What does this fold into?
Amino acid sequence: MESEFVAWLRARLPAHERLRLGPGDDAAVLRLGDRASCVVTVDLLTDGVDFHVGQASPRRIGHKSLAVNLSDLAAMAARPLAVVVALALPRHGGRELAEGLYEGMLPLAEQFDVVIAGGDTNSWDGPLVVSITAIGEVTSHGPLLRSGAKPGDQIVVTGAFGGSILGHHFDFTPRVDEALKLNERYDLHAGIDVSDGLSIDLSRLAKESGCGAVITESLIPIAPAAEQLAAQLNDRSTPLDHALGDGEDFELILAVAPPEAERMIAEQPIDAPLTRIGHFVETPGLWQIDPAGNQRPVTPRGWEHELN
Ligand SMILES: [Mg+2]
It folds into this structure.
């Protein structure tokens, strides 16, 4: 499993004075030159896994490829600076595909003032692979790590969850501005973006913080797309199931002390709704409180890459 491999890698990599934070968070934090904190992250998207060439336009694929990267910088509350783009293109139609991908990236890069600094473009007999490396800078309010949640902290999320496969996973705007604003205005203890699923990414944050998390089912903001998908699939899955496990919502999960959380919720300082969905506890694990008030342990659900 990917998480076990990352655990191996973290143990295997030597410590280095330039490395403030290595693998395992949404991005690495480095000391570079006279910069105390640079943030770097890389994503790899593959035809057939993250998108299907032929079902989505190259522009949408390009937008998504950059947006998922910027979402990881948002999860660190880092300001995006520059990206480099590596493409492995199928031999047939590669040039047109590459241009379409860049046409999809450029408006998003402009929106967030991100420099597309270069990259590498190859062709091969395999499917399209897009890998983008993004560099960001930490603000004076520091990087937002997964490891800072404390028992008693509230779980605050942006936006709504579930059903992203119906379109949101291509067309979302990464929560960069929201993360910077929230990190500037409030004392955030920890954060992560939801790429693989609300429950699995929450459990990852809790695990890195050495605590557990309790979520209240009735408080979870369910996206209209989750309702739509549950109705379409007719497989007994509920909108709540989709909200908890679908992934690619690219919303933020934040750990915030209770008075600060109350202030955030009252002020609603960003365009997306801020919702409190539960709290962190000392005992490791993930629990759900159902509408009857019963608390039971749940297995985190979401997307995990298999490594065998
Ligand atoms: Mg992430």
Q: What stands out?
A: The chain has nine helices and 13 strands.
